[in-house]
Design brief:
Radius of gyration: 22 Å
CATH architecture of the largest domain: Clam
CATH topology of the largest domain: outer membrane lipoprotein receptor (LolB), chain A
Shape: globular
Mean pLDDT: 76
Number of helices: 9
Length: 404
């Protein structure tokens, strides 16, 4: 089905209404923290191939966002396939190790059942997940691997992580971080990603309904979100929204540079019937090693979401340059930048290795190195300033010139 003619790009006059709908939708889109993803954000062949072209009543983008906001799906079960391709450099497998260790805060290898490290695996490659939910306090996510399975279960106040390969268990409670928030908030389902996309809907964004599709055997509308500004690495975001329930069934982010998706996450099977209560039961298997959350942290408090309030001060004044899709976060490390392979600051082979991973750039700000992925790029200047955003190399240089 072609895009609806009545659904042109969002005008500035509609932006306030869209923002109100977006805020309502955000409250719905991720009601399940255990299945949430902030991460990480993220070609691959599309994980879910759209099939069919259902004939559904016409709907505008504003109406579709409102439909998502009004949705109240509390029970579901199904299978999600998620593929991510940030275009990280090939470091002979080192990049996977860096990603898997990114969530660890105790300076040790940590428990293989700790969700803070296991769920970061979703930031690379293709994975299959089984998910289930029954209200705000009972959720389960299982990461299926070749010969093993990792499960994260939230049942009441208890949160369990279980790694079948090592027969290790990780236990924490929903109150461990102080405000009912947990460190396992990593995007894993289409609605998790959709929440982040909805936050970007403002007058710098084009929002349209791009026809219909079938996902996991269900009729859906396709919401298309695109930056109006040039300079963003984001090309387009497509969200398939269930026509009956208003729940996102599939999320696809394609880069402005073209090619396959950076993130493609969608249901292959889904049911909105209440899962069996036993789905969320968990007892550590006999002989399993059980690690309590406070033990893993060496009895020191885990960092909570509140610590983010002080991040700017710790990074010598984190601030944002630009607006909308062209926003660039910047901070000063107070250091001397990265070692390079030549010049006064050179450090031989290691500096040359870093040079090979980035592009040297110059501007009114001085000189530095841009490290690129297919979505997020970062400029580190030779005097220790950092500029990061979902923007192009030229946009980073422009931001650095403006912030010098």
């Amino acid at each position: 089905m072609a895009p609806y003619a009545s659904d042109d790009t969002t005008t500035a006059g509609e932006a306030d209404d869209l923002s109100a709908g977006r805020r309502k939708a955000a409250r719905y889109v991720v009601p399940v923290a255990v299945m949430g993803l902030a991460a990480a954000t993220i070609g691959l062949v599309p994980a879910i191939a759209d099939s069919g072209d259902p004939d559904l009543p016409e709907i505008t983008a504003q109406q579709l966002i409102e439909k998502m906001a009004e949705s109240d799906v509390q029970q579901l079960s199904g299978t999600v396939k998620i593929s991510t391709d940030l275009g990280l450099p090939d470091l002979g497998g080192l990049e996977d190790s860096l990603l898997s260790g990114a969530g660890r805060t105790d300076g040790e290898d940590g428990s293989p059942a700790d969700p803070s490290s296991r769920l970061t695996e979703l930031a690379n490659g293709t994975h299959t997940l089984r998910v289930a939910a029954d209200g705000p306090d009972r959720h389960k996510l299982s990461l299926l691997e070749n010969a093993a399975e990792y499960s994260l279960i939230h049942n009441g106040k208890d949160v369990w992580g279980y790694d079948s390969a090592s027969n290790e268990v990780y236990h924490s409670t929903a109150e461990d971080t102080g405000r009912g928030e947990r460190k396992d908030e990593v995007p894993a389902t289409p609605k998790d990603f959709a929440e982040q996309a909805l936050k970007a809907v403002d007058d710098t964004t084009s929002v349209t309904v791009d026809g219909t599709a079938q996902v996991a055997g269900r009729d859906a509308y396709k919401l298309l979100i695109k930056p109006k500004q040039s300079g963003s690495t984001v090309g387009a975001i497509s969200v398939a929204v269930d026509a009956k329930t208003g729940m996102p069934l599939k999320f696809t982010l394609t880069p402005a540079s073209g090619g396959a998706a950076v993130v493609d996450a969608g249901f292959t099977k889904v049911s909105f019937a209440r899962p069996a209560a036993s789905t969320f039961d968990f007892t550590p298997p006999k002989g399993a090693k059980v690690t309590e959350d406070d033990e893993a942290a060496g009895h020191a408090p885990r960092p909570s979401a509140k610590s983010g309030e002080h991040l700017g001060k710790e990074l010598d004044g984190l601030k944002v340059i630009g607006e909308g899709w062209n926003s660039v976060a910047t901070f000063d490390t107070g250091g001397q930048g990265l070692p390079t392979g030549s010049g006064a600051g050179g450090s031989g082979a290691f500096g040359g290795f870093l040079d090979s991973l980035g592009d040297k750039v110059n501007g009114a700000f001085g000189s530095g190195t841009v490290f690129k992925t297919r979505l997020v790029n970062a400029l580190i200047t030779d005097d220790g300033k950092v500029y990061v955003g979902t923007v192009t190399k030229d946009a980073l240089v422009k931001a650095a010139d403006a912030g010098r």
